[in-house]
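Journal club prep — side note

Before the paper discussion, L.F. wants everyone to see what a predicted structure for a comparable chain looks like in token form. Sequence:
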Amino acid sequence: MSTSTSKTPRFYLALAAGKATAAALKLARRNGGQLPGSVAEAICPDFLARCPKPRRVVFVTGTNGKTTTSNLLDDILLACGFDLVTNRAGGNIITGIESSLIKNARMSGSPRCQVACMELDELSSRRVLPHMVPEVMLVANLYRDNFTRNANPDYIFSVIDANIPASTHLVLNADDLISCRLAPQATNRTYFSIDHLEDDLEGPEGIVCDLTACPECGGALEYDWCHLRHLGRAHCTSCGFKNPEPDYLVTRVDKEAHEFTVRELCHAKDGVAPEYTYRIGTYSITNLYNLVSALVTARELGVSAKDLQRTLADGKVNVTAARFSEETVKGMRLVNTASKGENSTATSTALATICREPGSKAVVLMLADYYLATNPKKTEYTGWYYQADFEYLADPAIKQVIVQGANSDDLLLRLLMAGIDRDNIYLAETEQEAADMVELDGIDGVFCAYDIFNGEQADAFRTRVAERLRG
């Protein structure tokens, strides 16, 4: 579904210029994902309103995991035969979405593919949703994010809440008492949840919590369990507010067999709900949430459970490919795990994941944004270090912590405050130097936690460590 506005000569000029820009970028082997949309907007400021959209539009948004989840959903839908336009090469703000629509458009403006599945930046919802009404919108979660841009989840909630169209079918995380309350005007709602797991916590995890009181009345929340940060089952002791009942419930997780089971309560007949078991490659609670939310959205788009089982069974859809990679060299595990920059929740989750891995290890932190560090007019806000759980690294199994990046001194102070022995902390100027500092004797693995914009540097680091191991 989409809004429609008449096409004008200015629109056609903008479309042609955007297409020419996209062609030039392709010829130059450059990405420049937002540039075609930026060019089109410069010529026709209301380009998105006038641009014809695919008949079916699906948006994926939320604070953490939306890129991974959106990519998963894209892969699933493509594998199941959908004619799909995505914004993987464009970007999740309005100009990136416009770029994807430009590439998908004929010169007449009409779309080639009739289904769009796109990641949507939370703040960009106020510019995109008035002109591009989604049939289905997945909101995976809401946490605190980059302080200088998104601030706390209350603000992001208010932006998304005000802009979701009433006609949109919402897919929401019942375990998140923040985002599950979004947009009551959208009455077509589907909830997913994960049942109690053996390694759950009794309450919210971390030195900060995004949900300290009932979001309805401000009363005290009582938790039954938490899966991740504030995601779990809780109720208000004052007004009785609690998690909505799920339509899809993960009832069983078998980590060794790499599978999980989903009970589809919304499809129950005569009181019996069908259950389906799916494959998950590398298990973590984060990976499980990402995969479940993508599966539920696909089911609501009409994909059969059997097709989903087949698609996941062949291993072509990989939940960890974008943010988690591993290789083994001479028996040594070399693991790179990414997290969203200036995001305390994503970084804390990455550190917790590292610490839960077996064996002794060296940990390398590449958390300073590489591109901000090279920009003389910008600086990174380091206050988020004090909202992230670096205390995880004060673990006897972690023999060495190496910090690389522009803000090493700031992070050193935070690590000392987290109780990490100064003798185990090393500062490196470059990824090459960091790799050469790793003490390879007496450890089972080298783990690199890096900002998502530092992927090339993290890969170069691992390549150098592998070279050292091979001799």
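L.F.'s comment for the group: Residues 52 and 110 are 6 Å apart (CA to CA). Keep this in mind when we get to the figures.
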